[in-house]
Amino acid sequence: MSEKSKAEIAEPPKMGLRTPAEISQANEWLFNQQKDGRIDPKTADSLNTTIKNSVYLNVKMRMDYLKIYVQAQVKKIEIPAGLLPE
User: Fold this and answer.
1) Where are the beta strands (DSSP E) in the chain?
2) Dihedral angle sign, alpha carbons of residues 28, 30, 31, 35
3) Mean pLDDT in the chain?
């Protein structure tokens, strides 16, 4: 692929990574950009790593907290207020 001028490369849209819907949108955008050859594999890899981190922080970690809470309730253990994040 030849060098593209800055005018030819579109500025990526600003998108959040705080909700599963936003993460899904970012994944779709990244896939389409790489498929169409607009970004190189190294850049796509770094963006994918950022998306994975966001999935861990905003989805997986919350699920783990919920699991701890449910297990505590089953064993009749009271979790102090403020111990687990909202």
Assistant:
1) none
2) positive
3) 84
